[in-house]
TrEMBL record:
One of its GO terms (molecular function) is G protein-coupled peptide receptor activity. The chain crosses the membrane at residues 7-25, 150-168, 180-198, 210-232, 253-276, 288-316, 336-354, 366-386. Signal peptide: none annotated. InterPro entries: Mth_GPCR. This is CLUMA_CG008058, isoform A.
């Protein structure tokens, strides 16, 4: 099927380039002071000289503003100290911020934005009480960046939708391999969708955060499991190459297998949410990694085993003479190459998408959108354009419909 093998290497090269840009190229906004990596640095700009001293601030600054590290990690208790900096932000126009929280490391967080130096706490006198409000440099959000990210998100989802519509249009959903591909692409599309909500949602609605997170986990697990089902089904078909059954009965068992594991994952996460509520809210990224790492590693290892076993089977059958030119053998061989390419995409996606979770930088989010869009295009190329049968049937149906419309117009 893949006579032009350079496409696979080109795809791998693009992912390596994106990973290199994300990790190794310095960020323009990387301005964290090294002295603040071991302390909680908080910046103050006082109007009254009486309030601008360490003793007054330590006794009057609201202690609830300071992060409680026991909510993050039990090993970090009392390892950081409260450090006061007297600095004015490097801008002329300062505006007050209503919703914010002090970051665990340095600066403040406002929704999905992280401000390191361009802020300060200003003292205000309300009656006889001194209160502190946050001032930050006025930064107009880039309309171009927002629109570009939105366009890339829409392109990714529309590409997945195009794959699903083509499979339905050509009645591929009536075949076992078509149904597996549809379930796999649907899971990946939903995973992309819910991941964007996790990245960009700043409503601070805890219930919606939990629901979105559970849906994201279910989508990730579903994608991994349907990928393993696809590989296992190809391996099973090569094992029973002479069997005349179409294997449609296996689809029910595949669905039961996938949905049962998803239910177990969601149940365990719900239990963790109920009994470890505070830890859940403060360690969302760590919960994602801890819960999904085991499932990811197990499924990837099983998929590699079945892929290697299938490749060995293809090699042995190719050396024999009784199955050379066998129609089922050739079809399953094409499926194997398609599945192998899709497996490469699934393996690379976590490495290129984990950085936006761990970094506040806009460029990483933009690279995340580019990676998603590129992955969607590659999967469209694999499941649609590289499948000769789908191309022929698709263009054949288009030509028939065009002839019907032409004949109808001429008769009128």
């Amino acid at each position: 099927m893949f006579k032009k093998r350079y496409f696979i290497w080109f795809t791998v090269f693009i992912y390596i380039v994106l990973l290199f840009i994300t990790v190794f190229i310095p960020h323009q906004d990387d301005r964290i002071d090294n002295s603040c990596t071991n302390d909680i640095c908080i910046r103050f700009c006082c109007k009254n000289s009486v309030t601008c001293n360490d003793e007054f601030i330590r006794s009057n600054f609201n202690a609830s503003f300071i992060p409680k590290f026991d909510d993050y990690d039990d090993n970090e208790n009392d390892t950081r100290s409260f450090r006061i900096l007297y600095e004015m932000p490097s801008c002329d126009n300062l505006i007050p911020i209503e919703q914010w929280e002090i970051s665990k490391y340095d600066g403040i967080k406002t929704g999905d934005e992280h401000i390191y130096e361009d802020y300060c706490f200003e003292d205000t006198k309300v009656g006889d009480e001194i209160r502190w409000k946050v001032l930050s440099c006025s930064k107009a959000k880039s309309f171009f960046k927002m629109e570009t990210n939105l366009i890339l998100r829409i392109i990714s989802e529309m590409t997945f939708l195009a794959v699903l519509l083509i499979y339905v249009y050509l009645n591929k959903w009536k075949t076992l391999d078509g149904r597996i591909v549809i379930m796999f692409v649907s899971s990946l599309a939903s995973e992309f969708f819910f991941r964007q909500i996790v990245f960009y949602d700043d409503t601070n609605n805890k219930i919606m955060e939990v629901i979105t997170f559970l849906m994201e986990v279910a989508s990730i697990v579903s994608t991994l499991l349907w990928m393993s089902v696809m590989i296992f089904d190809i391996w099973l078909n090569f094992k029973n190459l002479d069997s005349a059954t179409d294997g449609m009965k296996r689809f029910k068992f595949y669905c039961a297998y996938v949905f049962s594991i998803i239910v177990l994952q969601i149940t365990s996460l719900s239990e963790a949410y109920i009994f470890y509520y505070r830890r859940w809210l403060k360690q969302l990224v760590r919960v994602i990694i801890d819960i999904l790492l085991f499932t990811y590693l197990v499924t990837i290892c099983l998929e590699i085993i079945f892929l290697v076993g299938t490749a060995v089977k293809i090699f042995l059958i190719s050396k024999a003479t009784n199955h050379v030119g066998h129609a089922k053998f050739e079809d399953e061989k094409k499926r194997f190459w398609m599945c192998l390419s899709a497996f490469g995409i699934i393996v690379m996606i976590p490495f290129t998408n984990i950085f936006p979770l761990l970094s506040p930088y806009e460029r990483n989010k933009f690279l995340n959108e580019i990676t998603n869009c590129f992955s969607a295009f590659v999967l469209f190329f694999i499941f649609i354009l590289m499948d000769k049968n789908i191309r022929q049937r698709l263009f054949h149906k288009r030509s028939i419909n065009h002839e019907r419309l032409s004949s109808t117009a001429s008769s009128i």
